[in-house]
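Worked example 3 (structure in, sequence out).
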C-alpha cells in the first residue's frame, strides 16, 4: 500500500489538480492521498491574521481574494464546492484576533488549517467525477493527535496508530497534511512545510510500504536547483543523509519527515508532478556511497553532507580557491562553513564542483 503526498505547487490550480488526478489514477496501490494548501495560501492566511489586528476590512478583503482564487479553480475544474462554513469560520477568527490585538498561536493554528481543508474539498469534488475508484474525504484531525505546542506540534504516535482509518479494497483516502489536533480537540499544526511529516506519520499508522512525495522538482538535488543550473538530482540517499541535509537548511524535505520512515523501514520517494516518469530520489536504509553527496546553503553557512569528511581537506580546498572560512563546525556526516558575504557565490560554486566531481549517482 502506498501513500502519495502532493505539495502546494502540485495543487496550485486546475491544471495542476488534473495532473495530480492522473497520477493517482495510474497507481492502483495508492490508497492514501495527502495534500497541502494551494500555493501561497498559507502566506495569505498569515496576512489575514496580520491585517486582523488593526484593519478588519483589509483582512476580510484579503480573505475574499483568497476565496475567489479557490472558487476559480472549482469553476475551471467544472465542480461546485460550498465554502460557506469555512468562510464563516475565517471571519470569526479575524474578529477574535482583532479583539485580542495579537496573533494568538492557538487561533493562528486554526486559521492555518483552512488552506488544507479548502484544497482537499476541491480535489475531492474533482476526484469523485474523474476516477472510478471510491474516494473518501477524511479530516486528518480524526487521527493525527499532537501535543499543545501551537505552530510546531509534536505527534502522539501511539494514539495516531490506535485511531487509524480502515481502508477497503479499491478505496482512496484523501486527507490534509500539516494539521492535527490535541486530545481536547483544538486544532494544531506541525510547522511550516510539515505536510511531508504528516504523510510519513499516516503511512506509519496505516502500514504503508512506500511514501511518494510529489513536488515541483525531480528529487533531492546536490544543491538547491534555484541556486545552480548545474545541480544534479540524486538517485539514492539514506534516511540519515536526507534528514541531515534537511536539518542543515535544504528545503525539499521537512526535517522530521524521515523519523517514521526510518523507524518502520518503508521507502520514501521524492518525485516531480511535472515529470512523473522520472525515477526521482529513493530514500531508504541504504546510504549513497559518494564521499561528497550534497550541500545546503542557509544564510552565511554552507554545509556539506557525505562520508568520512575531513575538515582539514575541505578547508584547504577552499583556501586554494582564495576563500577563508570564518568558522567551521562538523557532525558525524556533515561539515558546515561560515563564509564571508563577498565570497559566498564563489564558495557555493567551488564546493558544488567538488561534489559533482566525486558523486556516484547510481
Amino acid at each position: 500500500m502506498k501513500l502519495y503526498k502532493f505539495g502546494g505547487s502540485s495543487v496550485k490550480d486546475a491544471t495542476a489538480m488534473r495532473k495530480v488526478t492522473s497520477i493517482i489514477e495510474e497507481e492502483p496501490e495508492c490508497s492514501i492521498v495527502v495534500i497541502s494548501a494551494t500555493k501561497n495560501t498559507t502566506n495569505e492566511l498569515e496576512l489575514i491574521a496580520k491585517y486582523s489586528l488593526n484593519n478588519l476590512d483589509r483582512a476580510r478583503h484579503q480573505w475574499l481574494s483568497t476565496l475567489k482564487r479557490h472558487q476559480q479553480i472549482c469553476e475551471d475544474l467544472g465542480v461546485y464546492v460550498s465554502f460557506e462554513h469555512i468562510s464563516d469560520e475565517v471571519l470569526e477568527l479575524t474578529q477574535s484576533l482583532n479583539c485580542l490585538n495579537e496573533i494568538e498561536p492557538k487561533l493562528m493554528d486554526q486559521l492555518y488549517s483552512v488552506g488544507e481543508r479548502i484544497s482537499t474539498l476541491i480535489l475531492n469534488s474533482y476526484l469523485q467525477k474523474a476516477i472510478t475508484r471510491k474516494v473518501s474525504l477524511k479530516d486528518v484531525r480524526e487521527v493525527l493527535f499532537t501535543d499543545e505546542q501551537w505552530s510546531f506540534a509534536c505527534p502522539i504516535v501511539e494514539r495516531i496508530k490506535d485511531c487509524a482509518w480502515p481502508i477497503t479494497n479499491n478505496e482512496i483516502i484523501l486527507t490534509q497534511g500539516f494539521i492535527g489536533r490535541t486530545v481536547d480537540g483544538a486544532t494544531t499544526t506541525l510547522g511550516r512545510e510539515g505536510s511531508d511529516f504528516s504523510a510519513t506519520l499516516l503511512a506509519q499508522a496505516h502500514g504503508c510500504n512506500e511514501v511518494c512525495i510529489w513536488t515541483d522538482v525531480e528529487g533531492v538535488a546536490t544543491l538547491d536547483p534555484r541556486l545552480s543550473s548545474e545541480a544534479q538530482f540524486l538517485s539514492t540517499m539514506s534516511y540519515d543523509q536526507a534528514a541531515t541535509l534537511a536539518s542543515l537548511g535544504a528545503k525539499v524535505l521537512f526535517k522530521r519527515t524521515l523519523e517514521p520512515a526510518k523507524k518502520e523501514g518503508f521507502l520514501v520517494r521524492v518525485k516531480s508532478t511535472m515529470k512523473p516518469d522520472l525515477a526521482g530520489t529513493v530514500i531508504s536504509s541504504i546510504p549513497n556511497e559518494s564521499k561528497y553527496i550534497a550541500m545546503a546553503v542557509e544564510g552565511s553557512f554552507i554545509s556539506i553532507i557525505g562520508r568520512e569528511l575531513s575538515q582539514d581537506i575541505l578547508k584547504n580546498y577552499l583556501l586554494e580557491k582564495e576563500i577563508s572560512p570564518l568558522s567551521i563546525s562538523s557532525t558525524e556526516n556533515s561539515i558546515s562553513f561560515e563564509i564571508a558575504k563577498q565570497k559566498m557565490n564563489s564558495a557555493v560554486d567551488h564546493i558544488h564542483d567538488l561534489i559533482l566531481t566525486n558523486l556516484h549517482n547510481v
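Notes: The chain has a mean pLDDT of 95. The CA atoms of residues 300 and 341 lie 7 Å apart.
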